[in-house]
Design goal:
single chain, 221 residues, Fumarate Reductase Cytochrome B subunit, 67% helix, elongated
Length: 221
């Protein structure tokens, strides 16, 4: 059992994640093209300005819908526990890769949990503000003041989202094995024990229960 790997992400979960990542890239580039004239050249990636304006909101809505798939799958694992607060207090040790004395954590560390809820909040703001400024369908129902505030919130949420994704990518590369887990779905037992010991214990206990044969109940006669 010691040489076996642990399943961290199923095929469906990985597919969902990468579809969201692709749509984030496309929606982000198209949004930047519409954000400032200096970046309008990015619209060439989508067939020009008109097509960029048409496709951007649809890509954003689809990204939000697929992101909800990740939320439904992982929201329980992203609840904060008591150890998370202590882990954050010792973040300096984690940054130095000196995790001895750092409280054990579950499937996700507190930084990942903060990122998860930040992404969800940004996605919600982008969705609702985007609907307000979606001229083809909804903006006629809102006044100019509401549209201006929605545009501001949309830009701010997009800025925070892009920064968060940059941090997410950096952390995934920095912690060796994280990117491989999202590509192949499995991690080594040593990786799980080092970075997510509570999750490791839970998974290995579940495996032990599944592999333990049950004894038939016999009646004494």
């Amino acid at each position: 059992m010691s040489n076996k790997t642990i399943l961290r992400y199923t095929g469906n979960q990985r597919t969902n994640h990468w579809l969201v990542a692709i749509l984030f890239l496309m929606a982000g580039l198209s949004g930047l093209a519409l954000f400032h004239p200096a970046l309008f050249w990015l619209s060439n990636l989508f067939g020009g300005g008109p097509w960029t304006r048409i496709l951007h909101p649809f890509m954003g809505v689809l990204m939000f819908v697929l992101f909800l798939g990740l939320v439904f799958r992982f929201w329980r694992a992203n609840y904060f526990i008591a150890n998370d607060r202590l882990w954050l207090k010792r973040i300096d040790r984690v940054m130095k890769n000196e995790e001895e004395g750092v409280p054990p954590i579950g499937k996700y560390n507190p930084g990942q949990k903060l990122l998860f809820w930040t992404l969800l909040l940004c996605m919600l703001v982008l969705l609702f503000s985007g609907l307000v400024i979606w001229r083809a369908y909804f903006s006629e129902y809102f006044g100019i003041t509401a549209i201006r505030w929605a545009m501001l919130l949309h830009a701010l949420a997009a800025f925070v989202l892009i920064l968060s994704i940059i941090v997410h990518i950096y952390a995934g590369i920095w912690i060796k094995g994280s990117v491989s887990a999202m590509l192949h779905g499995r991690v080594s037992r040593g990786w799980a024990r080092k970075h997510h010991v509570l999750w490791y214990r839970q998974v290995t206990q579940d495996e032990t229960r599944a592999e333990t044969p049950t004894r038939p109940i016999t009646k004494k006669g």
